[in-house]
Design brief:
By secondary structure, the protein is an alpha/beta fold. The protein is built from ten helices and nine strands. The protein has an eight-stranded mixed beta barrel with strand order 1-2-4-5-6-7-8-9, surrounded by five helices.
Length: 238
Amino acid sequence: LNVALQPIVDLETRGIVGAEALARWRHPEYGELGAATLFGVAARSDYLDVLSDHVQRRAVAAAADWPDWLLRLRLSVNITAADMSRPGFAAQFLAMVRESGFGSERLTVEVTESGLIEDLAGAAALLAELRGGGLRTAIDDFGTGYSSLAYLKALPLDYLKIDTRLSQDIAGSQRDRVVVRSVIDMARSLGLGVIAEGVETEEQLTLLAEEGCTLYQGFLCSPPVSAKALATLIGGRS
């Protein structure tokens, strides 16, 4: 199992300011399998918590060993709805970060909006505890589920990540653009940073910037890569 890193880019400077950690596994028959497949399989077994812990620990430990010239980068890791229902998860997660030596002020935890969070009050308390430990919080894949507005109302968040389909819809019809604009305006009104996922073209990037999006990730910059390739990419862009 490997942890790949997808760069997060500042729209104004075009500089890489962070990276999201994503699980990857190369299957001998089916090739590289992504996080959605791995966690989907784990969710149907007894290994979901084990997989989630393993990916989080590997990502944070690897980032703690980044060279000095990467110390300005933020790291984003995903936590699942199942993680959020585990007793003592926040304290366990914060202890893991402290033990790794990675600065908590550089770490963002992302909650997938498409994952069902049944106890919003409990989830809000957990995220508040993580923020109290110095972390930032984000809602991922926003716009894919039916509980979006309820999550925004209930959860203490720092960032909203627009789902790939919404990001790419910005270059579609006028109706599509109005929907994306409304999401961005709502996030900004709530004081949230807005990160667009799945950006593939300069047209999409330009339109998202015009609507007030400040950060993006996607193949326009880079697919998920190794830490070594990320360092090379940053050096090349610098």
